Amino acid sequence: MMLQRAGWTALLAASSALAASAATSTFKTGVEEPSAPPMLGTPVVQGCFSSQGELKFDSIQTFNSKSKCAIDICLAKGKPVAGTMGANQCFCGDKYPPKAALVNDSNCNAGCSGFDKEACGGSFFWTIYNTGLTLAVKYSDNNALSSSVSSSTTSTPTSTTSTTAPATTTAAPEKKKSGGSNTGGIVAGVVVAVVVIAAIVGGVFFFLRRRRNREIEEEHRRNAAVNAFISGSKPPGSSGGYSVTDSRLDPVMAHRRISNGSIADNEDYSRRILRVTNA
């Protein structure tokens, strides 16, 4: 009787231990799936990495999982590689991270936000998948290890809302184009200079032309006066002229055709001089 009671007690203890272990294994979250050779058409885990390599951040998923990131997002975009990090972040790319970044699976211990039994990376660790698009996928160079971890984690939010991380681009300030204004000023200055020079030349031309016309008119008046003087020396009776007579000539002798003597230059015949003679 005592032996039966001891047997039942041992059996109950073993059953309790098995149930506790089963319950513990059932509710354990964030377990990294062991890596395996890639297969076409099926997402396969390729390991836990400490760098994202050349993978680009795609989005934050409220219900993230291996199939959500690898199939619904990356494979749909034609990318052969997918990666999850921080439970809810999804990355896509064309190459695996560098082999030097491969670490122990225990570092990828963050349960996926859509299915927490699976591990979707960890804090600054990535669970990498082959999406099944192609088997020929290369690893990135070791140069990609420089700052990929800090740049990706600090620039992407960790909220559980399904939003796409905004791509912030800072537009470079445009340089002021000073060449156009300088050229415009030079052209304006040249035009003004040409207009001023043309005005000066035109003013000189009109001044010289007016002075020349004045000289021609003056010369014409002098010639007219000379012609009038010459035409006025014709004897009386000629057409259109006037006679010029010397007042010192004897009026009687002036009307004679034939001179009867020489004219004394010192005699003024215009005035009669009384002379006294002895008769």
UniProtKB/TrEMBL annotation:
Q: Where, subcellularly, is it found?
A: Membrane
Q: Which UniProt keywords apply?
A: Membrane, Signal, Transmembrane, Transmembrane helix
Q: Where are the transmembrane segments?
A: 186-208
Pfam families, A to Z? WSC
The signal peptide annotation in the UniProt record is 1-19
Q: Which InterPro entries match?
A: Immunoregulatory_rcpt-like, WSC_carb-bd
Using the record's annotation, list all stretches that form the WSC domain. 42-132
Membrane topology, from the record:
Single-pass membrane protein
Q: Which residues form a coiled coil?
A: none
Please list where the region (Disordered) is annotated. 148-180
Locations of Low complexity compositional bias?
A: 148-172
Q: What's this protein's name?
A: WSC domain-containing protein
State the species of origin: Phialemonium thermophilum
